[in-house]
Amino acid sequence: MTPWTTAAPAVLAAFLASLVEFVEAFTIVLAVASVRGWRPAISGAAAGLALLVVLVLVFGAAIGNAPLYLLQLFVGVLLLLFGLRWLRKAILRAAGVLALHDEARAFAAEQGQLRDEASRRESRLDWLAGVTAGKAVVVEGLEVVFIVLAVGAGRGLLIPASLGALAACAIVLTMGAILRRPLARVPENALKFCVGILLSAFGVFWTGEGLGVDWPGADLAIPGLILLFAATALILVRLARPAAVGAAR
Amino acid sequence: MKALAGIVQDIVGLFVDDEGLAVAVLAVVVVGLVLAFGVHAPSDATAAVIALGCVGALVVSVMRGRAK
Predict the structure, then answer these.
(1) Which of A32, A211, A217, A226 has a CB 3.0–4.6 Å from the CB of A133, allowing a cystine?
(2) Do residue B11 and residue A89 have CB atoms under 8 angstroms apart?
(3) Rounded (5°) CA angle B64-B53-A194
(4) pLDDT for the residue B48
(5) What single DSSP character describes residue B18?
């Protein structure tokens, strides 16, 4: 049985990352619906979802046949690239170097872009709106699929990680159906900071497993790596903060 | 076709944002591979190189991002 020290961070990472991705996809689908109606938005999203299912079936079969150490190394390296990229951006945002991600602004930008297209080529707009919604679902959904596979595949945690992602999807869809506006109050920047730490820690762990490392404390190394990245990230936020921001606080 | 190209570009962008960070991470993994399978270094040494190498890559990338 997988210990909670591995299972809990895996499920948490899948849940939090999926929450962020579903919120971003929902914002774009909602922007499409607000400009062009629900029909192209829903058909585009459904087409994107179908493409995702095909990709999961194809890559799921390939993953099932791969030797475990190769899978751990491959997934570990991808997780490192993915997680450290998230963490870097989150640190720079928390330090005030990059602008914070704002779902309301993303919604307005997407609406503006679609309206511009509408004024140029009205006849193709339903198609364009559908493609926009579908692309959002594919790109954000791929991130969810990757994270669930990456944190779940190496230790037989696919089902718990998938349940974490499904719970996030249910929450976003329910909140979205009730509010019918962008979920701007979800603390995306803080979530991305946490997810970046979790994914980077998993990336180091899986890469090490793929290289045959006997981690001190076995699975207990994961919380240790989480602490290492969390401490580094918090110190970096202070170090990277521009002088003016630091003085104002 | 344009949409497909956009999706491929977005997928690459999921893993590579700061090229320097991506190259540094891959370099750390290559050193880890050499240590583990080339010179058969102790497991703890490989673990330390991967963990601290990735932390170092992050520190350099963030500080470079701050300077931009």
Answers:
(1) A32
(2) no
(3) 70
(4) 95
(5) S
Q: Is A89 within 8 Å of chain B by CB?
A: yes
Do residues A18 and A192 touch, judged by C-beta distance below 8 A? no
- What does the DSSP 8-state code read for residue A99? P
For residue B35, the distance in angstroms to the closest alpha carbon of chain A comes to: 9
> Is A41 exposed, middle or buried (CB count within 10 Å of its CB: 0-12, 13-18, 19+)?
buried
Alpha carbon distances (Å) from A161 to A5, A6, A144, A150, A178: 14, 11, 10, 10, 26
For chain B, which residues make up each domain, given as ranges?
A: 17-67
Summarised one tens digit per residue, pLDDT across range A53-98 is 887 777 777 776 778 788 889 889 988 998 999 999 999 999 988 8
CB contact residues (below 8 A), chain A span 163-202, against chain B: 200
Tokens 């779940």 locate to A152
Q: What is the mean pLDDT of residues A172-181?
A: 82
Q: Is the ipTM of this complex over 0.85?
A: yes
